[in-house]
Write a structure and sequence with these properties.
35% helix, 4-stranded antiparallel beta sheet, alpha+beta
Length: 297
């Protein structure tokens, strides 16, 4: 059963059969992707769970849509500031990645995190309201492997909602994969630009246009695909949420710890909501107004 048939299926029984099927499919795809970056993907699940990180970016398009022309690139890991030191230790000590400072960052990654300064990339991909640091790690064991650790002031999903457009608003946790605009992203291959179309944003828009996405800057009358003005939740019926099976074997105590952390992540996701204002196109806040975890971003 195809992704299209899942989204439009009127039969609940067929829908849940397809969900179970794709749980195995996506679990396999995620393990295959992680194996390109980590020697022990199962250990990554452990750190991902206990640190509350998500994996997002173009890698998720590659996992969700096998017909895409997206080429594997950097693996983007979004991590809360409080747990960034743990993730750095994992990447350097367990996976032997080398830290590559950028934009006059300190030579020590822990010092770069400790600065906790508001970060702004020249590409315009990240907003300086939610991201405190972006750390690049490289390993040349089998080709060039790059991992980008994005350290956030707030919940990583809130940082993802500040992306340039809707086609990259997808992520996976330690046990679920989320697509916030599945109909537009996976079926129609359309993406709504969420921030002011400045010179900094143009390369990103052109990048995804070249990958087959129709990059939109305005809403068509009567088009509800992007749910304008509707108060959205990460876990609402407009999102596509698929649990997957890591197929990792841990000691019982570690397994309980991972399950507890995954549950805490799901609870936190239920508190994040946002709405899309088609008439708002500010430079700093863009069209996405995010409310979650007792703060407005």
């Amino acid at each position: 059963m195809s992704i299209v048939s899942i989204l439009v299926s009127p039969r609940a029984e067929a829908f849940w059969r397809a969900i179970d099927y794709y749980s195995h499919i996506f679990g396999s795809r995620i393990r295959k992707v992680l194996a390109q970056y980590f020697r022990r993907p199962a250990l990554f699940y452990w750190y991902q769970a206990i640190c509350g990180t998500i994996v997002s970016g173009s890698t998720l398009i590659l996992i969700l849509d096998q017909k895409t022309t997206v080429e594997p690139g950097d693996l983007d890991i979004y991590c809360p500031y409080e747990d960034a030191d743990t993730m750095v230790g994992y990447l350097q000590d367990r996976e032997e990645y080398c830290y590559c400072p950028i934009d006059k960052q300190p030579l020590n990654p822990y010092h770069a995190i400790a600065q906790k300064r508001q970060f702004k990339m020249n590409s315009g991909q990240y907003t300086n309201r939610v991201v405190s640091a972006v750390l690049n790690f490289v390993r040349t064991e089998t080709g060039i492997q790059r991992v980008q650790l994005v350290v956030t002031h707030t919940h990583p999903v809130i940082a993802m909602l500040k992306y340039h457009s809707t086609c990259v608003m997808n992520f996976f946790t330690s046990d679920c994969i989320y697509c916030l605009y599945p109909q537009a992203t996976l079926v129609q291959h359309r993406s709504m630009i969420c921030r002011k179309d400045s010179d900094d944003l143009c390369p990103l828009v052109e990048k995804y246009h070249a990958r087959g996405y129709d990059m939109l800057s305005s809403f068509a009358e009567g088009d509800n695909t992007f749910a304008p003005f509707r108060r959205r939740l990460v876990t609402d019926c407009w999102s596509w949420i698929i649990p997957f099976y890591p197929v990792a074997h841990f000691r019982p105590s570690h397994d309980r710890c991972i399950k507890r952390a995954a549950k805490e992540m799901r609870v936190a996701l239920q508190a994040i909501e946002w709405y899309f204002n088609p008439y708002l196109m500010g430079e700093r806040r863009g069209r996405m107004s995010v409310v979650g975890l007792d703060k407005h971003v």
